[in-house]
Predict the structure of Pilus assembly protein CpaE.
Amino acid sequence: MNAPWKAGSLGTRDPFAAYICDDASLDVLRPIAMELGWQPEKCNKGGLRNAVQSLSISASPNILLVDLSESGDPLNDINSLAEVCEPGTVVVAVGQVNDVRLYRDLIASGIHDYLLKPLSPAVLRDALSQAQTAFAAPKQADASASARHVSTAVIGTRGGVGASTIATSLAWLFGTEEKRSTALLDLDIHFGTGALSLDLEPGRGLTDALDNPSRIDGLFIERAMIRANDNLAILSAEAPINLPLLTDGGAFLQLEEEFRQAFEMTVIDLPRNMLVNFPQLLADVNVIVLVAEMTLASARDTIRLLSWLRVNASHAQVIVAANKVQPNFAEISKADFEASIERKIDLSVPYDIKAASQAAKLGQTFAEANRAGKPGAVLRDLAQLVVGTSDGEDGEQTGKAKKPLLGKFDFMSLLTNKDKAPAKPKAKPGR
């Protein structure tokens, strides 16, 4: 991810502003600014520090020219500028240090160009003209990245069914084995285990986003998310349990939007209470993994959630995954469960307490710690199923998952007859 002036959409801003340390450079700049149609009073006296102070209380311009001459550590100080620059700003820096390493580092940080003093009118004019061209260029790469993005929500039908275990495993598999840049968003604000499963500290990124949703942009995402590896970053929280969640959900939608720009995959660990309070979270979700267990209560809630999803998230593909499956000790048989929910279970993850303990001891996701075991293999099938579903062509989306190219799974579509009452869970004999 790059600095915020590399990407983003802009509203109405000043077309140009400059912060220059010396009068000689200002004398060269002002006539060129007027040639390009900019107001000469936007050429301000003062360098990087003045730019940061000014832009912290006002919108950044389309094109910003900033003087690094008085900066003792340009690379570090440029981060201060990045914090106050809004997405889309094209930054041209000027300075006195003639060092190719500095030039390369500044360009890598997102600066459009770096010019040496004393400023040449011809070089300055050319640089600002190129900055105009860069600003006006369509953001085709950003649009295509957004179009390719796949968002997966993992929802547990009951507490304790292992939805968080599956969510973290999917995120790890997408990032590590599929080599796709992946964001994991743990929306259990007070008791989330996403960071814990990855042996990480959750940080304050998510709580800061809820407190200041207006600050959510590409740079915020880059700094707030905790990186688990090269392709996986997580945003989670351990909010104080004496502080209730006070939000209208707008911050979550803004986070999802930024994820679409910055990542190929998003995995949302979505607790049921968050689904009830913020149904809009599923508006742009492509795939929903509904995690159930073989109990009467879970069967009942699977029926209710499938019915709700048909009405409120009909655009998304739904995968039903049974977790912690023990065929000889199940409260309700697989056949009875499927008859109750009126569709097939797509995958069944066998119960393995030793595998779960091993993952906890190693501080790894379940899939990472148990690559050779049967549960890990099923989770890989689930990851492949999500990828195959999302990569397939658009088809009828009535809550059924499409087959991946290999045709490994056979799915039963959900019934769409609204007049037919859903079947009640069947108790096992003797209940």
Q: What stands out?
A: Residues 374-391 form the longest helix (18 residues). The mean pLDDT is 83. The radius of gyration is 26 Å.
